[in-house]
Amino acid sequence: MSAPNKSYDPVEVEALKPEEIERMRDEAVAAFAAAGDLDALAHAKTAHTGGTSPLALANREIGALPPHAKAAAGKLVGQARGAVSKALAARQAELEAERDARVLVEEAVDVTLPYDRTPAGARHPLTTLMERVADVFVSMGYEVAEGPEVEAEWFNFDALNFVPDHPARQMQDTFFVQGTTPEGTAVTTGDESGVVLRTHTSPVQARTLIDREPPVYVVCPGRVYRTDELDATHTPVFHQIELLAVDEGLTMADLKGTLDHMVQALFGADMKTRLRPNFFPFTEPSAEMDMLCYVCRGESVGNPDRPCRTCGSEGWIELGGCGMVNPKVLTACGVDPEKYSGFAFGFGIERMLMFRHNVEDMRDMVEGDVRFTRPFGMEI
Ligand code: DAH
């Protein structure tokens, strides 16, 4: 800044000469006009309006003028700066509009281009079949209940009346996660239970009975684990559906009617089931449930001219286990067996998918090849 200027002499304060101020203004306006894009304009803005721009420096010189000259010089500089910022704003708006118009063209999306080059995924047939089966029961008023896959040994075995040395508890059959039970020796209680990957969906029966007051009508779909090698008919991870009904006065006739309804809903109105005696610790009496062969409808039996590959001309296909809930299970879960009775049923979904759709190798279900899943349709 120049030294205080007692006798005002604009000639000596070069920067404040009107022609100088005009020149600075015109240069600034010209620089803005010349800026071809917003970056260039930002540079011009710093050069012509920043703290060290000619007009800002001229403005500082005003302080050094004698009082009577300050107003006129201030007006001059102020007007010039006003004109400069107006020109800047106008150019800024112009360049922004240009940029926006250009972006609209450059980044335009051609909505007519094909959009489905990446095929949509779809749900696995095991999932859709499991839901379809569960839906049959939901439509009868059952609720869906679920339990954990990492399960207390007590729920998986003890509550279901498996004796301590039952072979299913052994490590060749069951994945123990924690508190491994030495084969067939331990008796576990609720407090000191080991932890297993559940080997069936039946523990959800016990969980449900402990959680709710009868009447209980639940269907329990889920994933289960056993120490099997993966081959054409086994997989260490598979799916089951469990059914449990506990109410006053339920009998085996209710179980049979429910099973018949299920196979009719899934395989056709002329389907039926038959029960063969079997043993499960958690049902008494227990039965193996067969359904009429859905291919030959039983007509291959004793008819060598019409052999059936699906059922081996037996006329029936084994579907799962069932029975009346063992009173010991009801007692273990706090339900009075004098007042209530119940039935249960459980079966594997992989097996049902195999015979319902002629799948010959279970490995196809886990390998994730779309050539396997595509023919089942695209449920998303
Ligand atoms: N939990 C049995 C299994 O995995 C299947 C089963 C049998 C379930 C009889 C039941 C039943 O509910 O009543 O082999």
Summarize the structure.
InterPro entries: aa-tRNA-synth_II (IPR006195), aa-tRNA-synth_II/BPL/LPL (IPR045864), Phe-tRNA-synth_IIc_asu (IPR004529), Phe-tRNA_ligase_II_N (IPR004188), Phe_tRNA_ligase_alpha1_bac (IPR022911), Phenylalanyl-tRNA_Synthase (IPR002319), tRNA-bd_arm (IPR010978). This protein is an alpha+beta fold and 380 residues long.
Q: What topology emerges from the helices and strands here?
A:
Blueprint: H1 18-34, H2 38-49, H3 54-61, H4 67-106, H5 125-138, E1 143-144, E2 150-152, H6 153-156, E3 176-178, E4 195-197, H7 203-211, E5 216-225, E6 237-247, H8 252-267, E7 273-280, E8 283-292, E9 316-325, H9 327-332, E10 341-348, H10 349-357, H11 363-366, H12 370-373
Parallel strand pairs: 1-5
Antiparallel strand pairs: 2-4, 3-4, 5-6, 6-10, 7-8, 8-9, 9-10
Bound molecules: 3,4-dihydroxyphenylalanine.
Residues 200, 202, 242, 280, 283, 321-323, 344-346 line the site of 3,4-dihydroxyphenylalanine.
